[in-house]
Amino acid sequence: SDPTENLTFNLKLTQSEKQARSRLKLPYTYSEEQKAAELSQPVASSGGKIFYQPDDVDDFDEEDPDDDLDI
């Protein structure tokens, strides 16, 4: 017995759905040309930098929260 025969949704794609999926360009994926362009750029030797500017509502204090641990 097929366990998928009584489902309320379809697990299989129709041919038109397969074609539509193959043509879809996802916004977070690179095309082969974009991938090659990114990989051919030289890497900066200084590395990356992170600049953090705390908001007014950030709870920042100088006290070490792990001060009571015996490590």
Describe the structure.
The chain has 71 residues and is mainly alpha-helical. The chain has two helices and no strands. The chain starts with 14 loop residues before the first helix and ends in a 31-residue tail after the last helix. The relative contact order is 0.05. The mean pLDDT is 79.
Query: Runs with pLDDT <50, length 5+?
Result: none
Tally the beta strands. Answer: 0
Rg (C-alpha, Å): 26 Å
Q: How can the largest sheet be summarized?
A: none
| Percent of residues in β-strands | under 5%
Rough outline: flat
Structural class determined from secondary elements: mainly alpha
Overall mean pLDDT stands at 79
Topology:
Blueprint: H1 15-23, H2 32-40
Summary tags:
71 residues; mainly alpha; 0% strand; flat
What's a concise summary of this model?
This protein is mostly helical and 71 residues long. The protein has two helices and no strands.
